[in-house]
Design brief:
globular; 2 strands; 8% strand; 6 helices
């Protein structure tokens, strides 16, 4: 299954909007199967952007988010604005349509910085928001 950054953004927005900060969240995203959502929830947990629960049973792959991490909030703040997100997707499409996450994150921060009147030089000096190396393996398993 391919990584879908639209789905990633939608999961982050849905997770943030959930009023609880614990337990798991039953996220349904229109236009995507539960398997696609579960796979992307697992990817987000692997990347350290969310805390998630592995609820997989013998025949049913199932991952549910529970909350955003600091890095998840940082990335979501960068991609939340529809105009910034549309411009980011446009640039990615012009350059070939697929980029590593670190490049996407740097690009969206640059575009978001420009939207706030920060020049390229100033945007380039923004704090590094890449995840801490140990955050990638931090996944919480259990039942909500």
């Amino acid at each position: 299954m391919k990584r879908d950054m639209e789905l990633v953004r939608a999961i982050l927005l849905a997770t943030e909007a959930h009023p609880k900060g614990s337990g798991w969240i039953d996220v349904k995203i229109e236009g995507y199967s539960q398997e696609e959502v579960a796979y992307h929830v697992k990817l987000l947990a692997d990347a350290g952007l969310i805390e998630a629960h592995d609820l997989t049973t013998q025949g049913d792959f199932c991952w549910k988010p529970s909350s955003l991490t600091w890095h998840g909030h940082e990335f979501l703040d960068a991609v939340r604005n529809d105009t910034v997100w549309a411009k980011t997707k446009e640039v990615v499409k012009e350059k070939g349509g697929s980029v590593p996450f670190a490049v996407l994150q740097a690009l969206v921060i640059k575009i978001a910085g420009a939207a706030f009147g920060l020049g390229e030089q100033r945007a380039a000096t923004m704090p590094n928001t890449r995840m801490h190396p140990t955050a990638a393996g931090r996944i919480v398993s259990g039942h909500g």
